[in-house]
Amino acid sequence: MEVTNTSSIMWFFRDKGFDDPSIDKMLRKCKQLEKAQSDVASENWDYLSNIVGIQERKLPYIVSRCPKILTLRLDERLIPMVECLSSLGRNPREVASAITKFPPILSHSVEEKLCPLLAFFQALGVPETQLGKMILFNPRLISYSIDTKLTVIVSFLASLGLDQDGMIGKVLVKNPFLMGYSVDKRLRPTTEFLKSSVGLSEDGIKSVVMNFPQLLCRDVNKILKPNYDYLKECGFGDSQIATMVTGYPQILIKSVKNSLQPRIRFLVQVMGRGMDEVASYPEFFHHGLKKKVESRFKLVKKNNIDCSLREMLDCNTKKFHEKFGFSEVFNCNQNGMYMLLDKSVSLLACDYCSNRQAKEVSA
C-alpha cells in the first residue's frame, strides 16, 4: 500500500513539473509524503490556486518549502487557517502573499498557535486593527514559541524602559521582524553599543527604539560601527553623534559610500556649510540629494536667500515655494515630474508640454 501511495504521489509531482531530485528532497523532508494520497494532494493544490489565489507558478516553490501542506486535510487545517488569516487582512491577496512568504504557516493549528499568538500581542497593547498587519507582514511569527522566544524579547524591551502605555506593542507593530532576533546575539549587543560607544542615555535608547526599532536588529560590527567610525572621521563630536542618532537613527545604517559621503561632500564643498548645522538637523541625510537638496539649494542661492538647512528642507514643495516666494510648481511631463521656477525665470516648454501650450509664465 505504501509503495502504491509513494508511486501515486510521485506521478502527481511529475505532473506538476517537479524533477526527481526535487521530489526525493521533499520525500526526505516530509516522511508523511510517502503515505500521502494523490487525490488529497491534488485537492489541496487546487484549493491554494483557485480559492486562496496563489499563482500557479509560485505553488512549486511553496510546496517544496513545506511539502507537508499537501498531506493535510482541508477541513481540519488549511481552510480554518486561511479563513482566520482572511479575517485579519483587508485584501485577499495579503493571505496569498503571507503563505508565499512562509508556507509552513498552513501547517500550524488555529486553536493551538494562532489564537494564543493573537492574544499575546493584544495583551502587549497591539490594537486589534494592527494584529492582522503584523501576522500577514511577518507570518513567521506563528512559528515562535511564546514561552521560550517571544516572552524573552518582551522582557528585554521592558528592561529598556518600554513597559508603559503599550510601548512594546507600538514597537512590534513598527517592526514585527524584531521578534525573530536573538536577545543575546543581536538585540543586547546592539543596545550596549548604542550606550557605551554612541553614548545614548536611557531616554535616548527609548526614543530610538520607539521611532526606529529596526536599528536594534542591525549587526554592530558590519553596519553600526563602520557608520559611527565614519561620523567620527568627519569631525563630529561624541555629543553631536549621540544627538544625531537620537534624532535620526537611520544615520547608523545608511550606506557610507552611497549616502553619507555624497551628502557631506555636497554640504561642505558646494553649499559651504559647516558640520555643526547638520549635527542639529540630522534629517538632512533623509532627503534626496539630487531631487531635493541640490534643486532647492540652487534656487535659494540664485535668489540670495539666507536660510538654515531645516528651513530649506523640512517642508513639502508647495510650502517651500510659499515660504520663499517662488512661482507655482508646473507639471511638465506625464510622469508628474516638477520644474521649479523662480520669479525671474521664463518657462521654456518641454516637448510634452509644447503639444498643449507654449507660453511664458511670470510670477
| Helical stretch tally | 20
Largest sheet: 2 strands, antiparallel
* Spatial order of the strands forming the largest sheet: 1-2
CATH architecture of the domain at 149-253: Alpha Horseshoe
Low-confidence sequence ranges? 328-363
- SSE order, one letter for each helix or strand: HHHHHHHHHHHHHHHHHHHEEH
Q: Could you say which overall geometry the principal axes of the C-alpha atoms support?
A: elongated
Helix content: 55-70%
Q: Taking all residues together, what is the mean pLDDT?
A: 87
> CATH homologous superfamily of the domain at 149-253, by name?
Transcription termination factor 3, mitochondrial
CATH topology of the domain at 149-253: Transcription termination factor 3, mitochondrial
Give the strand content: under 5%
C-alpha-based Rg, rounded:
28 Å
Please report the distance between the alpha carbons of the first and last residues: 86 Å
Number of strands: 2
| Helix/strand structural class | mainly alpha
Output the CATH class name of the domain at 149-253: Mainly Alpha
